[in-house]
Prior knowledge:
It is built from eleven helices and ten strands. Helices cover 43% and strands 23% of the residues.
Amino acid sequence: MRLLVLCGHAELTVSELIQILGQSQPRVSRHLKLLCEAGLLDRFQEGSWVFYRLANRSGTSLLARYLVDLVPENDPIVARDLERLNAVKQTRMDAATSYFKENARNWNQIRSMHVDEAEVEAKILASLENRSITDFLDIGTGTGRMLELIGPRAEFAVGIDTSREMLAFARAAIEKADLRNCQVRLGDMYTLPFANGSQDLVMIHQVLHYADRPKIVISEAKRVLRPDGLLVIVDFAPHHEESLRDKHAHQQMGFDVEQIWTWCRDQGLEPKAQHILKGDPLTVNIWIVGPNSSQKTNENPSSGAGQ
Ligand SMILES: C[S@@+](CC[C@H](N)C(=O)[O-])C[C@H]1O[C@@H](n2cnc3c(N)ncnc32)[C@H](O)[C@@H]1O
């Protein structure tokens, strides 16, 4: 029960659980194995690390959550475990923050080249209106900002990224915001670890310029999108900032509006809305597309898209 409670609060490794519980590794591992076999915990691998968390998408997940809720958090043993858990979370946060600090200068430099992110985020939220979101996928989640923004509106949200350091930062951020419906996973935008038609909102926010094959990324996003789903792409308009390619590993110097529409239409996605947020020297564009309902492929790619 102590393991269930802890894994109900955070995704934890065996060594973190040992540190909190003060019990031997074989004992903790044996109980984790039994809890996974019973379907109460999920085990997942991130590089060479293995994390455990409360099952939340299986038939037994309701039982797992019910069991955790039965345990009073003021029970002296549980309260001490949760106190130690907070210390573990703080250690993680410190490590993630120090990584981020090293990179923050680069990020701030790019930020100063375009409109305030708050403006972009306001446009994204306005575009979603009152849409109900069951499964939200954030591709290239980075610091998990999109999970923080949209996670509270979704039933379940997951961010994927190829960088373990960024995932550590995002994990700490969603724990700090107490977003228990959000998770982060190691995953590549070219081969998304999700079933066909499993997501109703997919976000590619400031990630596509890292792709050497952006069209494939869009086709992967389309693959996992539900028939009534939405794909939101946020990226720069074409620019000449060579430093982004030389110093920040951008593969693409922005995207032509029509180019993105064409790639989307090739995948059977049609424009739903478009926003252009002019900046100097970088303009941020938002493309919102959804599966083509009419299958009319010859219409103007921008038709139906609002500014
Ligand atoms: C500029 S950050 C954007 C993060 C976030 N979407 C945001 O806007 O706050 C780009 C992220 O894309 C991730 N990334 C790069 N290549 C990737 C790939 N092939 N698959 C998944 N993520 C990738 C990077 O690790 C980085 O965290």
